[in-house]
Amino acid sequence: MDFNKSKTKENLARIFAAECQDGARYQFMAKAALSEGYSYISDQLKALAKNEMAHASMIYGLILEKLDKGKDNVPIEAGYPFEPSLLKVSLSTSAEIEEYEAKNIYPSFAKVAKDEGFPEIAKKILFIAKVEETHHQKLNAFAKLYKANKLYKNSEPILWSCSNCGHSEMSKSAWQKCPLCEYPQGYVIVPQDKLTSLYQ
Ligand SMILES: [Fe+2]
Ligand SMILES: [Fe+2]
Asked: What CATH architecture applies to the domain 3-147?
């Protein structure tokens, strides 16, 4: 099928819009997290933003490569959610958006691409969906811990490390102030084991 007449062209434009939004949202959230004192979560959100912008850039390239004229304006209709960047709201709503992308919208776009004769595009969309699933799980785990006020507590001793100076200690809860560099608790890395146990 001619790419320029395909549904896939429009779907790629929708993915591009979604990825740009996600990337912007994570940058806003990273700022909010920092102002709430959660430096480590802020760093994690910046890493997610970087992933989203890489997805956006890749999709942008795919569209450009296939266009006849080398440039085009693709009209799309899509949802543009607006929500406060405060962590108590944004972590769980962003987790939901990621889940919807990973499990519904991107797999359906991949199917259309495959049916329209663009298997390579379908493959890339499914790869992105897989990444979005890891984003969903991570944001969901952060949301649960944040809401329960358990980011820095654990039922068993666990290894906490400072993202600033690298100091680490085994205990049930992380220090209020790092014994080495004296940076506050928000710099403590939430251990991967702790997050993984909350993934679903
Ligand atoms: Fe993405
Ligand atoms: Fe994502």
From this structure: Up-down Bundle (1.20)
Could you tell me if 31 and 136 are in contact, meaning their C-beta atoms sit under 8 angstroms apart? Answer: no
pTM above 0.90, yes or no: yes
Please list the alpha-helical segments (H only) found in 36-186.
39-66, 87-100, 106-115, 119-147
Q: Which ligand is nearest to the CA of 98?
A: 2
Q: What is the CATH number of domain 153-196?
A: 2.20.28.10
Question: What are the pLDDT digits (tens) for 52-109?
Answer: 999 999 999 999 998 877 678 899 998 888 989 999 999 999 999 999 999 999 999 9
Relative to the alpha carbon of 56, which ligand is closest?
A: 1
CB distance 87 to 30 below 8 Å = no
65 alpha carbon to ligand 2 midpoint, in Å?
24
Residue ranges of the chain that CATH labels 2.20.28.10: 153-196
53: CA distance to ligand 2 center in Å? 9
Q: How far is the CA of 170 from the centre of ligand 2 (A)?
A: 32
182 Cα–ligand 1 center, Å? 35
Domain ranges in the chain with CATH number 1.20.1260.10: 3-147
